[in-house]
Records
---
Amino acid sequence: MMQNGDDIVVDPSLNNSVIGIIDSGVGGLTVAKEVMRQLPRETIYYFGDTLRCPYGPRSPEEVRQYTFEMIHFLEQFPLKALLIACNTATAVALEQVQSVLSIPVLGVIKPGARAAIKATREGKIGVIGTQGTIRSQAYKIALEELHPSISVHSLACPTLVPLVENGNRSSPEAYRVVAEALRPFQNKQMDTLILGCTHYPLLADLIHQVMGAHVRIISSAEETASELSTILHHSGLLAQKKKFHRFFATGSAELFAKIASDWLGQKIYAEKVELSSYTLYRKKFFAG
Ligand code: I24
Ligand code: DGL
């Protein structure tokens, strides 16, 4: 019905369908916020797997399985596009998801890599992310595809997600944790640093301070939302009528609603979803 390409055939009913956003938890709200800012008429259905967060330390197989479980849940709604807001899930599952869905599917890695290539002056780029993202080398591969002679330094920073989630990011100790995490980058020459994790934009000021003012900090959220906007414009899929956003979480709906309301600056209601029973239900009735 709809393809990524020049000869686009659009089903007019898709205009009022919704944008699905999936993430391992609440971090993807950084991307959702940017989509709301750039595409204020669009309706978002956000799914956060807060019960099984973090994905960073998990195996690629596990992350792929969880990612497909979230997608199968959202597939009951009319989706016009799907955004994988989680870097770890994008790193290990994006291509597989794209190969089975007939709507546009965007990850956060290629847009982030593109923004970094635009920003770099000397072609020396650093990438920080979870263990899963760094292990996959997805950023390095994306950057080298865009510019073969680029130099890329990658670093997993497993202490930074807990720092944000514990709500300590403005404590005096936070600077020390960030400096310690980035120590392997201190003697590396780089002019641009990609924040390859949903949570790191909340630490952007501290990271900038530690890395030095000459280093440009890139967060993928803005670039991803702008790519989504381009796709919707070009394919005639922009919404005409806004509906209510919906938020689904596998963990506590109250906690999710509290963090989302705080972050998005509007009152958010969240709905709790039990994925395991939903997956069993699908298996029973649709055999897959
Ligand atoms: N920030 C994040 N995760 C949390 C948190 C936070 N608690 C306080 N703040 N908890 O991520 C994660 C575990 N929860 C998630 C919800 O279900 C239960 C388990 C970063 C959020 C990025 C949008 C601090 C905090 C906040 C609101 C906005 C931003 C923020 F409360 F950092
Ligand atoms: N959302 C994840 C990412 O962007 C960070 C949190 C996690 O490890 O699940 O990689």
---
Amino acid sequence: MIKQAIIPLAGLGTRLLPLTSVFAKELLPINGKPGIEYILDECIDAGIKEVVFIISKKKQMIKNYFYNDNFYKKIIKKKKDPRILKEYQKILKYKKMIKFVYQNKPLGTGDAVLKTRKYIKDNFFLMLLPDDLIIRHNCSKSLIKVHNRYKSSVMASMSVKKKTVSRWGIFKLKKKLDKKNFLVSDVIEKPSLKNAPSNKAVIGRYILSKKIFLKLLKQKPGKGGEIHITDSIQSLINDEEKFIAHNFSGKYLDCGSMNGYIKSTLEIAKL
Ligand code: G1P
């Protein structure tokens, strides 16, 4: 069973400037609700019991959001507003399931994952990248089902326009397992159009084996000088670890870019 999830939240959010110059991008409201709450709700609905947040000193605001008890208690004492009480109870529910670890240098997603090593208890865990919102269908829940069926690592996958391949991790597929699931033979972080093995991209939902930590310990920086989870995944595949690309249902929204962020508000308002 997958019971633990990790969420890297130390990113600077430069693509969303100026909104992120003093504010954590994951707390920006999308249709009246902070983006991170959509991600947490997806986890809860998928049966996750514990979530590890990887933040940085600069993103301390995220921890404060969940630890503002005194403020809520004072307000609720004065004003008996049932809406605020309900919101506070929701925050308390989230707070109970979150642990915080720190990544103070922006060394990449792989480095962020490594920070959670001592918290992961089971053989497999879920990772969600908070820029990637997937609506109308719980992608994490689907990945967990695929994991339970094939007992392997799984990544969410989507076909993208060929000319955008250098924005994503791109897969080479080895074998079709069924309508939505494919065995992966290679994954390359942000390849050039010339080197891209396909137009199938990794989207920010992964079920990873604990073995990834041993790879990350030795992982050299890759594209852009960062330590990429993608490179350690490739290293596990080279060791015959089974990785499945799951073509998820639901709509993908890229909340890490300004256009995508604006669009996500409009799309969620339609739900
Ligand atoms: C990350 C991953 C990349 C993946 C993408 C999905 O990139 O490194 O492999 O395709 O998320 O959104 P980033 O968005 O951090 O540049």
